[in-house]
Design brief:
The protein has one helix and 46 strands. By secondary structure, the chain is mainly beta. Among the domains are: about 100 residues, no CATH class; about 70 residues, no CATH class; about 70 residues, Thrombin, subunit H, CATH 2.40.10. The strands form twelve sheets. A four-stranded antiparallel β-sheet has the order 1-2-3-4, with no helix packed on it. Strands 5-6-7-8 form a four-stranded antiparallel β-sheet, with no helix packed on it. A hairpin with a 5-residue loop joins strand 11 and strand 12.
Length: about 450
């Protein structure tokens, strides 16, 4: 009954203001007609126009780069990766800086984002590295690789040539000659390496910490490295000595000071001394994150804390909990709700779908309509909308009957639904798109009251 009264109130409000919003003829049009605006990253957002071309704006809504790119990625570490097609199925990649200048010319067949002032680039089937001025620091000579792709971390990058792995430094200098059949991730100054079927561990000077004797090794974490031999797992320390005996059927790297282990079909966790936290009792388990870990029993999932205490009994159907702002979305009997990290149910699983919390509110859906709840589980926006975007600057875009408006955190209609689309607010302004019967689509900015602004 309350939902019906609220829906009637919304409908009455829409009818009352249907005479039209403030005239938009004086608004300064956005460069190009925008069909999509992506989120801001490093103070710059990319957009896509109605022709499918990409451009960029800054957080003052000023043009950084007009829509001249056939694709553009978000800014990362001061640069955005862009490309143009030069022939069917053939693109050339480059980078622009935060002023929209071409920092790296579009000459590469592929490219990865900058990390530590270096980006991997591909030419004629080989990969190399450039600096932020576009200068080569390592000539294209490295073969294709699957994940993890080429990148620098702590001044080092793994590289692959003629089926052998090695390591180079920031200026392209050889740190470890490409000589290994396999190579793990660099961690805590050590690398797992493989020759034939056996693995060992070396330091960054290429010296063996542990000889080629293992069936598998994992990256160092908390000063320990998980190793496998004859189907049993244990851990070695930074001296290469066995610190925790090989007794587990499986063991993972440490996360937040605890490692997953498995024995006789049951999972548990150990600390860096090898002491079990709780019991080996779980059918499955995920690594710790944020002080809690997912565990399962009888096909249901629950939570334990870092002492092994059960926070929430295994009773939930979903494994992907997507914990945000201290709350996890959980599912039971096909319905969704929320749980806090102390195991309290803040919203019973009564919703058809939920979106994780953001700024203290979560979008929920029931019978095809969406609303919002707060962190106490109270419905603050009744589910009457066809769609709700996450809140930005206290306002959320809502859609009803194919047109968009905005509501505040109390559910009040601040901008009546009348636009084809509304982006999230940034700096007190949002980008809207409307249909102009004479000129087709056009896009411009509005303020928090829905008034066009220049």
């Amino acid at each position: 009954m309350m939902e019906k009264r609220f829906a009637a109130l919304v409908l009455a409000l829409l009818l009352a203001v249907s005479a039209g919003h403030a005239a938009s003829s004086d608004a300064a049009e956005f460069p190009g007609h925008v069909s999509g605006l992506f989120g801001f990253h490093e103070g710059i957002a990319r957009y896509c126009d109605v022709n499918g071309m990409y451009g960029y704006i800054d957080d003052h809504w000023e043009t950084v780069s007009r829509a001249v790119w056939q694709h553009g990625e978000d800014f990362r570490n001061g640069f955005a990766r862009v490309y143009r097609s030069i022939a069917y199925g053939k693109e050339k990649y480059g980078f622009i800086d935060a002023e929209g200048n071409a920092a790296v010319d579009l000459v590469w067949d592929n490219a990865a984002d900058f990390e530590e002032g270096r980006a991997a680039v591909k030419l004629d089937g080989k990969w190399g590295f450039i600096d932020t001025r576009g200068n080569l620091v390592s000539e294209p000579q490295w073969d294709d690789t699957t994940w993890p792709y080429y990148f620098f971390k702590d001044g080092l990058a793994r590289v692959h040539r003629d089926e052998k792995w090695g390591v180079i430094g920031l200026n392209g200098e050889t740190v470890i000659e490409p000589q290994w059949d396999g190579m793990g991730l660099i961690s805590e100054g050590f690398i797992g390496v493989r020759q034939g079927d056996l693995w060992g561990v070396i330091d960054l000077e290429g010296n063996f910490l542990s000889d080629l004797q293992w069936d598998g090794v994992k990256p160092f974490s908390c000063g320990l490295c998980a190793v496998e031999r004859d189907g049993k797992y244990g851990f070695i320390d930074t001296r290469g000595e066995i610190a925790l005996e090989l007794q587990w059927d499986y063991a993972d790297s440490f996360r937040e000071g605890l490692a997953r282990v498995k024995k006789d079909g049951r999972w548990g966790f150990i600390d860096t001394r090898g002491v079990l936290i709780g019991e080996l009792q779980w059918e499955d388990a995920d690594a710790f994150s944020g002080g809690v870990a997912l565990v399962s029993r009888d096909g249901k999932w629950g939570l334990i804390d870092s002492r092994g205490r059960i926070v929430s009994e295994p009773q939930w159907e979903n494994r992907d909990w997507t914990i945000e702002e201290g709350f996890a979305k959980v599912s039971r009997d096909g319905k969704w709700g929320f749980l806090d990290l102390e195991g309290r149910i803040v919203s019973e699983p009564v919703w058809d779908w939920v979106v994780p919390f953001r700024d203290g509110l979560a979008v929920v859906e029931k019978d095809g309509k969406r609303g919002c709840i707060d962190t106490q589980g109270n419905v603050v926006i009744e589910p009457v909308w066809d769609f709700i975007d996450p809140f930005s600057e206290g306002l959320a875009t809502v859609m009803q009957d194919g047109v968009c408006g905005c509501v505040d955190t109390a559910g009040n209609v601040v901008i009546r639904p009348s636009w084809y689309s509304i982006s999230g607010f940034h700096g007190g302004r949002a980008l809207v798109c409307e249909r102009d019967q004479e000129n087709g689509w056009r896009s411009f900015l509005i303020d928090r009251q829905g008034n066009p602004v220049s």
